[in-house]
């Protein structure tokens, strides 16, 4: 069938007008929230959230922050994901009363958009024990000359020697501070923010309130809430991954991605206290399984807990000397159950475990230490376990010997059968076994006898009552 030219023109016009007549899909904004210390769980949540926002076609990702800081490795994972994101990322310190301290300040500087709510603060970005051994304490104040307030000339040789002696100890902390200062300065220059204050926050651990941060161009926006921030961002253009993106946030659809079960599980097991408990449960589970093989429950639970603990410790800044002390202490406690050391190995194991737990986590970042009450509780529990093992050993030593000749001799038993050819010999059922007995007097079935001695598989017995009368 042929189509007339008029119909062709009308069909073409309909195809051209059809898209214009359909309502446009609303622009979407994805919100991710980082609450608490920044660790492996937070980094995994943010990295996967940014990737999901790209798949959903979002035009903006808002990272709501309230954190005291966190681990350097996790912070850098988040920053790498932000810098590589093709979608602009707005870090927003909210609600009022929140903070973006330490690692949060770095993330704020790395974001395409930095915003804060009134009553919030940021700063205090000095690295604290980020890997390695912490530096030595600062040198004491130099003595001043009483007249001019200058350093005493007589003390200069000694001061020079002191500076030379303390230099190796301070080298690690200086390297950490210089590296962190260069890192945040590069982020500030990339985003056009105040690089001088950023370096000051690293070297002097200073902080700023939200209003002061806006005045010093540390942040870009001050917004009372998320709706206010989106209103201010409407129509603004930002460059993400080399591509300019103009935001259309007025009436945008806000999608909030809460942490899923994987993130929550990772947050639980990467808690240093939980990791320590899992390791103890795992080792004790395997210990009881090896002590009483066959049940299987201790081995299964112990293996699962131990693998989870090792996975969690792999993600945490672990001091391996502390780990070695904990494993040595557990080995001593286990050896106490098998070796007669009268508590020496067990007590030594508790001491080694306590010191190891104190130095296990190699950082002073808030939220990543092991509480002292938890260490004391585990040490006391292990001590009670040692005391219980010693008590059971002492009770077993005082208990009378059960079994063997001492348990057979003196037993009262009835004759179950008599040999027809020899009335002095018969059989008795004693301790679940049939024994052949020999008597000085003739035996009768049902007669009660007492065991006098054992000679190999033969028991010497004597009658303790008259034989029952025989029937006619």
Topology diagram in text:
Elements (H helix, E strand, L loop, with lengths): L4 H17 L6 E8 L4 H16 L4 E7 L5 H13 L4 E5 L5 E3 L1 H8 L2 E4 L4 E3 L32 H36 L3 H10 L2 E3 H6 L5 E2 L3 H8 L3 E4 L2 E4 L6 E4 L4 H9 L2 H20 L5 H19 L4 H17 L7 H15 L13 H27 L6 H4 L3 E8 L2 E9 L2 E7 L8 E8 L2 E6 L9
Parallel strand pairs: 1-2, 1-11, 2-3, 3-5, 4-6, 5-8, 14-16
Antiparallel strand pairs: 6-7, 9-10, 12-13, 12-15, 13-14, 15-16
Helix pairs in contact: 2-3, 2-9, 3-4, 5-6, 10-11, 12-13, 13-14
Helical/strand content category: alpha/beta
DSSP strand (E) fraction? 15-25%
Calculate the terminal CA-CA distance, rounded to whole Å. 127 Å
State the low-pLDDT regions, or none: 18-24, 130-169
Order of neighbouring strands in the sheet with most strands? 8-5-3-2-1-11
Mean pLDDT: 78
Helix percent band:
40-55%
The main sheet comes to:
6 strands, parallel
Q: Using the CA coordinates, give the radius of gyration.
A: 40 Å
CATH architecture heading of the largest domain: Alpha-Beta Complex
Helical run tally = 15
Report the CATH superfamily of the largest domain: 2-enoyl-CoA Hydratase, Chain A, domain 1
Morphology: elongated
Give the domain tally: 3
Indicate the CATH topology of the largest domain. Answer: 2-enoyl-CoA Hydratase, Chain A, domain 1
Oligomer: single chain
Record field, number of beta strands: 16
CATH class of the largest domain: Alpha Beta
């Amino acid at each position: 069938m042929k189509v007339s030219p008029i119909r062709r023109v009308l069909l073409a016009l309909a195809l051209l007008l059809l898209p214009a007549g359909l309502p446009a899909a609303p622009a979407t904004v994805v919100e991710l929230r980082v609450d608490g210390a920044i660790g492996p769980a937070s980094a995994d949540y943010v990295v996967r959230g940014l990737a999901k926002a790209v798949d959903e076609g979002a035009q903006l990702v808002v990272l709501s922050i309230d954190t005291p800081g966190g681990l350097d490795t996790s912070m850098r994972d988040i920053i790498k994901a932000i810098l590589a994101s093709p979608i602009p990322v707005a870090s927003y310190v909210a609600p009022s009363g929140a903070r973006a301290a330490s690692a949060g300040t770095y993330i704020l500087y790395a974001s395409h958009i930095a915003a804060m709510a009134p009553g919030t603060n940021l700063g205090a970005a000095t690295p604290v024990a980020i890997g390695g051994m912490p530096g030595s304490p600062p040198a004491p104040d130099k003595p001043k000359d009483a007249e001019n307030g200058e350093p005493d000339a007589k003390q200069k040789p000694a001061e020079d020697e002191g500076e030379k002696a303390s230099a190796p100890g301070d080298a690690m902390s200086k390297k950490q501070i210089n590296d962190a200062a260069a890192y945040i300065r590069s982020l500030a220059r990339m985003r056009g923010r105040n690089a001088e204050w950023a370096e000051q926050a690293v070297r002097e651990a200073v902080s700023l309130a939200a209003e002061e941060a806006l005045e010093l161009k540390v942040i870009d926006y001050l917004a009372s809430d998320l709706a206010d921030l989106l209103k201010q961002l409407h129509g603004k253009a930002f460059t993400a991954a080399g591509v300019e993106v103009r935001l259309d946030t007025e009436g945008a659809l806000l999608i909030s991605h809460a942490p899923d079960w994987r993130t929550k599980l990772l947050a639980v097991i990467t808690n240093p206290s939980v990791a320590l408990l899992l390791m103890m449960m795992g080792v004790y589970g395997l210990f009881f399984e090896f002590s009483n093989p066959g049940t299987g429950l201790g081995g299964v639970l112990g293996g699962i807990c131990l693998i989870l603990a090792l996975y969690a410790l792999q993600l945490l800044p672990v001091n391996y000397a502390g780990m070695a002390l904990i494993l040595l202490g557990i080995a001593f406690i286990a050896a106490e159950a098998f070796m007669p050391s009268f508590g020496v190995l067990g007590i030594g194991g508790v001491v080694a475990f306590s010191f190891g737990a104190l130095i296990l986590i190699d950082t002073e970042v808030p939220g990543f230490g092991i509480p002292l009450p938890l260490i004391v509780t585990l040490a006391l529990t292990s001590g009670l376990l040692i005391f219980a093992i010693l008590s059971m050993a002492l009770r077993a030593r005082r208990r009378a010997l059960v079994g063997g000749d001492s348990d057979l001799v003196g037993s009262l038993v009835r004759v179950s059968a008599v040999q027809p050819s020899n009335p002095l010999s018969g059989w008795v059922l004693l301790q679940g076994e049939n024994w052949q007995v020999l008597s000085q007097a003739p035996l009768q079935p049902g007669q009660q006898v007492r065991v006098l001695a054992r000679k190999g598989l033969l028991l010497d017995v004597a009658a303790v009552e008259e034989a029952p009368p025989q029937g006619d």
